[in-house]
Design goal:
mainly alpha, elongated
Length: 78
């Protein structure tokens, strides 16, 4: 498998896992598995900066973390 194909596969898998975790609250993978996939994705992006697009999980992770944190706060609008 070439690097670009692997990168696209990682993006898809991480996006699915994020949706399961943050939206469905029913992840199919462990935190460790997610972290390893994300590290691999970040490594590929570091070596191939032209691959990075706005829909990359590396560009969205901070927003998802913030939403997950405040979604349990009473009175929040999320």
């Amino acid at each position: 498998m070439d690097t670009k194909t692997r990168y696209e596969e990682l993006k898809s898998t991480i996006q699915r896992l994020s949706y399961e975790y943050y939206v469905l609250d029913n992840p199919s993978g462990t935190d460790y598995e997610y972290d390893m996939l994300m590290r691999e994705l970040l490594s590929i992006e570091e070596k191939n900066p032209s691959f990075v697009t706005p829909d990359s999980p590396s560009q969205k992770i901070a927003i998802l973390y913030f939403v997950k944190q405040i979604s349990g706060v009473p009175g929040s609008f999320l």
